[in-house]
Design brief:
Blueprint (H helix, E strand, L loop, with lengths): L18 H25 L5 H5 L2 H9 L17 E4 L8 H8 L38 H15 L5 E6 L6 H12 L5 E7 L2 E2 L2 E2 H4 L5 H7 L3 E6 L3 H13 L6 E6 L22 H10 L4
Parallel strand pairs: 1-2, 2-3, 3-7, 6-7
Antiparallel strand pairs: 4-5
Helix pairs in contact: 1-3, 1-4, 1-10, 3-9, 5-6
């Protein structure tokens, strides 16, 4: 287990830690989470590796970057920000993060997909830290919109973050939620799109193109920002900026990523979603500790 993050809620370094040290810490955590994700997949090949590697920096920024208010000792605390992991299959990289933070014991990482363990190939709310059932794609944003509306009507200050994939946005239910959130001015709602440009059977643009996704969301009344999704510092700063913005409109961060990042033959391959690297390659990468 690595040490607790040097960034507090709101992104400020803990006392005695400089901002530079805290930000370097985030970069190391991203490299660590990448390696841990490979290790989980090495022992549980039923997990979706490519989809999880594109989201590493997103989850590191959320959970270690001071973006989310959360308490591993009390995962259902009323004061928590809600993080809806809509692309559940692509969040295996979140398993080691939650274990490191103390949501559950690290021994669970060796029991992914094993009878008696709590971690499956697809996560569900039996796992401390997960809010929703995440198998069927396209529903997270609708659920998140409902939670955001309920929080606002209660006068609660908490924020809602929904992490989805770009291919998942082919589901029509997302666009109903996009219209709903704009109609109600849900400025406590944040959509984070893992825009890795590849869906299950090929490039997203060759199946149903989103064109200029930011422009489309803006046309629906959303405030949008874009970022290099593998620049963990950039992702963190963009999320904090969006969280601070309360101007009567829901917010989206489009994080441009590479599916299968750092794995030769898997990175950016059209069929990476359903590909499993050979165990020998995983062992080599784990020894080398890539990516940089």
């Amino acid at each position: 287990m690595i040490e607790v993050s040097a960034l507090q809620a709101g992104g400020e370094p803990v006392p005695g830690t400089t901002r530079v040290e805290a930000l370097m810490d985030l970069q190391e955590r991203a490299r660590w989470a990448w390696r841990e994700t490979l290790a989980v997949h090495r022992s549980a090949p039923e997990t979706r590796l490519a989809s999880s590697l594109s989201a590493v920096e997103i989850f590191v920024a959320l959970y270690y970057g001071g973006v989310l208010r959360h308490d591993p000792r009390e995962p259902r605390a009323v004061t928590r920000d809600r993080c809806i992991v809509s692309k559940g299959h692509g969040s295996i990289c979140l398993y080691p993060i939650l274990a490191d933070l103390g949501y559950f014991g690290r021994e669970e990482l060796a029991r992914v997909g094993v009878a008696g363990g709590i971690l499956g190939g697809i996560p569900d709310p039996v796992i401390p830290g997960y809010e929703t059932v995440n198998g069927s794609l396209g529903h997270g944003l609708g659920v998140g919109s409902g939670i955001a509306l309920a929080l606002r009507r209660r006068g609660a200050p908490q924020s809602v973050f929904v992490v989805c994939g770009d291919g998942e946005l082919h589901e029509g239910a997302n666009w109903e939620a996009i219209m709903f959130a704009a109609q109600h001015g849900l400025d406590n709602l944040h959509l984070v799109v893992d825009d890795n440009a590849i869906t299950m059977l090929g490039h997203t643009a060759g199946i149903v193109s989103h064109g200029d996704l930011a422009a489309r969301l803006s046309a629906f009344g959303w405030h949008c920002a874009q970022v290099d999704g593998h620049d963990v510092l950039g992702v963190r700063d963009a999320l904090l900026e969006l969280k601070e913005r309360r101007a009567g409109a829901p917010k989206a961060l489009i994080a441009r990523t590479l599916k299968g990042r750092g794995v030769p033959g898997l990175e950016d391959a059209p069929l990476s979603h359903i590909m499993n690297p050979k165990p020998e390659l995983l062992d080599q990468l784990l020894r080398e500790g890539r990516p940089q």
